[in-house]
Design brief:
Layout lengths: L6 E8 L2 E8 L13 E2 L5 E2 L4 H4 L9 H70 L25
Antiparallel strand pairs: 1-2, 3-4
Length: 158
């Protein structure tokens, strides 16, 4: 049996690339460890963060600085939520106002449509009455005799 290999990690940087190298004291079945490369945010390969970098110690959570940051964050979140609620309320109020205005305008359209219809009917009736009362011009050059009406069966008509 082979004994377990013990690895020593070293981090080096070559041309903007962080390389984690593992050096083992014994190899397993003649295999060597290959350095791990991880992509970073800007496309350059970077080593993964160590576990101590990823987690902050819990003792730091008890510090005054941590409490102040939390309080500031809590106030910022509260303020943001209040602004969001106020914006939603303002928007709803505007919607209600626009609905009321729309209803008023629709009522005005109906009223004006009725008024237009009445005025149109009055105009047509007046135009019809004028057409009935107009007599054709006299045939003898504008004398004082009554106009000739072919439908007239009276003695003056023939």
């Amino acid at each position: 049996m082979s004994r377990p290999s013990q690895a020593k990690l070293t981090t080096t940087e070559h041309n903007g690339v962080s390389v984690i190298q593992s050096q083992t004291t014994a190899s397993v079945a003649g295999l060597q460890r290959v350095p791990k490369l991880l992509p970073s945010a800007v496309g350059v390969l970077k080593a993964p963060p160590l576990s101590s970098e990823m987690k902050k110690p819990s003792a730091e959570k008890d510090s005054d600085e941590y409490r102040q940051r939390r309080e500031r964050n809590n106030l910022a979140v509260k303020k943001s939520r209040m602004r969001s609620k106020q914006k939603a309320m303002d928007t709803q109020q505007r919607v209600n106002e626009l609905k009321e205005e729309n209803e008023r305008l629709e009522a005005k359209i109906k009223l004006l449509s009725k008024e237009l219809s009445v005025l149109k009917d009055l105009f047509l009736e007046h135009a019809h009455n004028l057409a009935d009362n107009v007599q054709p011009p006299a045939g003898n050059g504008g004398g004082s005799s009554p106009a000739h009406n072919p439908n007239d069966t009276s003695a003056n008509g023939q």
